[in-house]
Amino acid sequence: MKGPTAGAAALLLCLATAGSALGATWDVKMLNHGSDGRMMVFEPAFVKVAPGDTVRFLPVDKGHNVALIPGMAPAGAPSFKGDLSQEVDVRFEKKGVYGYECVPHAGLGMVGVIEVGAPTNKAQALAAADQLVGDGKRRMLELLALAR
Length: 148
Fold this sequence. Notes:
The chain is of the alpha/beta class. The chain is built from three helices and eight strands; from the N terminus they run H-E-E-E-E-E-E-E-E-H-H. The longest helix is centred in the N-terminal third of the chain and has 17 residues.
């Protein structure tokens, strides 16, 4: 018996790589209480993904949203902002760090970071984090320290 034809081999190669071309999907929950006892959190609050991956923000507890923080994304990256209590899917293409918040609860520390590939804009993100207030600023600086 002979091996697969060139056409069959090409089809198998396409099927094997189709999932990687689409990217992975990562879930981040919007919660009133996290598993670590913190109140008003994204869980996980730090996610490292590859370019082309999608992060799905899930409103497990109502009354939260997700929005990109101005100045906390690579140059040219599109902004995003969801409505309260709505699921939001964001596909990340550009390498760098993205800081995001729940608008009503950012001052309480409900912020997060997504690192896509390498943290190419970390210095810019740190400067933007300095504009945050309350626990949001403290928490953002903790999360940006994880970006490497």
